[in-house]
Amino acid sequence: MPRGLGALAVLGAAFLVLPPAALVWRAPWGSTLHRLADPATLEALRLSLVSASSATALSLVLGVPLAWFLARSAARRVRLLRALVTVPLVLPPVVGGVALLLLLGRRGLLGQYLDAWFGVQIPFTTLAVVLAEAFVAMPFLVVSVEGALRGLDRRFEDAAATLGAGAWYTARRVVLPAVAPGLAAGTALCFARALGEFGATITFAGSLPGTTRTMPLAIYLALQSDPAAAITLSLVLLVASVVVLVALRERWVPELRP
Amino acid sequence: MIAARLLVRRAGFTLDVDLTVGPGEVVAVLGPNGAGKTTVLRALAGLEAVDEGRIANDDTVWDDPATGAWVPPQGRGVGLVFSEHLLFARMSALENVSFGLRARRVDRRAARARSLEWLARLGLTELADRRPDELSRGQAQRVALARTLATRPRLLLLDEPLAALDATVRGEVRRHLADYLRGEHGGCLLVTHDPVDATLLANRAVVLEDGHVTQDGTPGELATAPRTAWTAKLLGVNVYRGTSDGARVSLDGGGTLTAASAPTGAVVLTVSPASVAVHRDRPAGSPRNVWPVTVTAVQQTGHTVRLTLEGTPPISADLTPGAVAELGLAAGAHAWASVKANEVRAEAR
Asked: PANTHER family in the record, alphabetically (chain B) (predicted)?
């Protein structure tokens, strides 16, 4: 390693480690439990967990088949599709929120018909939170699962077929177990990303207490009125993130194992 | 009876093969790399469709693009064993063997019992609970064999099943395979590079070169009358079965050969025809194996002449045309064959 780079590396590490450390350092530990019992906090926490879990479930149901299709098709059109479905990965979430509004909003391309035909309005509902989170988080799952599927030796599926297994049986007993580490890592990343979602949520779902005000939104609001509460809420999300990271490290990402 | 006409087109390569495998028949498919051997197996297994032709098992058509008939792999009842074991990593040996039965909706207890039977037959009872990564290569390949045989395939396809094993375990796995193939079975197609496999396991051999069958006959016929240089080189190898006391091997067909090193017990010996020396008079000197022979056939393939020599044991020898002329060797001539002990390769069987 060239001389001088070491100092920059230390600076880089400090830059990433110090902010969370400051959060832990300045946390009002004495009143944390008391603040956590606050009904508004509990409401935001519950809403966050429910919507992030729902978004993750939705991502699994739709994202795994999509990943499968992307991994198993070599056609040129599919390469374009792969690029398109990973756009939310790099799109600013707030732009994603605007895009969702334009499609599913009350006057959106699809939303106007949902409203006119079924009387369904998605924006500013918990469903909108789930959709916003899934839109932002699902690509993480898709990319992770697709990579795992691509890395799989197809001959295992050939072997299963000649042993008499149909496609579903092979998928369940051979393919899914083999991609389980990638699937688990993708699920954890997807959940973590959904839990922290802010921009798309506030744009597409707003910030209605109990309905769409998830933890990140509550933190942002609290920071202006009650900084101590904001720090406490942040602490909760930090813990949740660390739990996801530890779970990844211990079980699913062996190269990170000490 | 499996009857297949396979026409598969790939960029720069066309496979065009007629093939039959009768019940109980073991057909070895030999040929250089890239000749299309694996494509034949994949087409028969249903992992690839033929572009033209027809594959039928008795009256059931498996693949016929002309009529659109198609039976997927899982409907064909074909077993395929690869050179790598391809065991499912997250299942125990027993679960691997049960896989095909469970896929056919055999209930759990019956599948377990039948799988244990197969594991026992292949000497794997103790290893039933092991994961593939806890098995040696030879053990894993036996489990893979048990996994396929447990489904009672009506056609067994073996894609170089012994190629990835080292010599010591190859004999053991081959013995288990031979045991199975001696019994009643629906037919077997064995892709191999090893003339020993072809000689010990197959009753018919098909040589595939550049997508076409260049020869079809018993392994013996292919060895004595090779039609192409490749066949001559591969199948010309002399193969003997015998019993070894550590160095001297009494051959099942009569005669003895001395190998520089040989395991004791049942062995299979191979002697390359190129390493056989032929003399008009009894040679003096170092060769350990010297015996009188009679020339029964002289055949030129390319730049070598293959002599078929009758004696105890019979042997094939490759000489240059010059040497044959110099020695005056023609059919009926009496001569002496000699082979150095370190040219005799021995392998347990």
From this structure: SPERMIDINE/PUTRESCINE IMPORT ATP-BINDING PROTEIN POTA, SPERMIDINE_PUTRESCINE IMPORT ATP-BINDING PROTEIN POTA
For B156, the closest chain A residue by CA position comes to A162
Alpha helices in A27-86 (DSSP H): 29-36, 39-72, 76-85
Q: How is chain A split into domains, by residue range? A: 38-256
* Global pTM value: 0.79
* Per-residue confidence in pLDDT tens, chain A, 258 aa: 787 898 899 999 999 999 999 988 888 877 777 777 788 888 888 999 999 999 999 999 999 999 999 998 877 788 889 889 989 989 999 999 999 999 999 889 999 999 889 988 899 999 999 999 999 999 999 999 999 999 999 999 999 999 999 999 999 999 999 999 899 889 999 999 999 999 999 999 999 988 999 999 999 998 888 888 888 889 888 988 888 878 776 555 554 444
Residue A30: CB partners within 8 Å, gap ≥ 6?
Answer: none
Across the interface, whether the CB atoms of B103 and A177 are under 8 A apart is answered no
Asked if residue A237 lies in contact with residue A191, where contact means CB atoms within 8 angstroms, the answer is no
Indicate if ipTM > 0.85: no
State the DSSP code for A65.
H
On whether the CB atoms of residues A160 and A178 are closer than 8 A, the answer is no
Q: What distance in Å separates the CA atoms of residue B100 and residue B82, rounded to the nearest whole number?
A: 16
Residue A148's CB is within 10 A of a number of other CB atoms, namely: 21
Helix/strand/coil for B118? helix
Nearest CA in chain B to A179: B90
Mutate to test the interface with B, among A155, A158, A162 (most CBs of B within 10 A): A162
Compute the distance between CA of residue B103 and CA of residue B106 in angstroms, rounded to an integer. 7
For residue A176, the surrounding DSSP H or E stretch is helix A176-196
A173 min Cα distance to partner chain B (Å): 9
Q: Could A164 and B82 be called an inter-chain contact, meaning their C-beta atoms sit closer than 8 Å?
A: no
CA distances from A43 to A74, A214, B251 (A): 46, 8, 87
Asked if CATH classification 1.10.3720.10 holds for the domain at A38-256, the reply, yes or no, is yes
Preceding amide of A216 cis, omega within 30 = no
Which residues have CB under 8 Å from B114's CB, separation 6+?
A: B98, B101, B106, B150
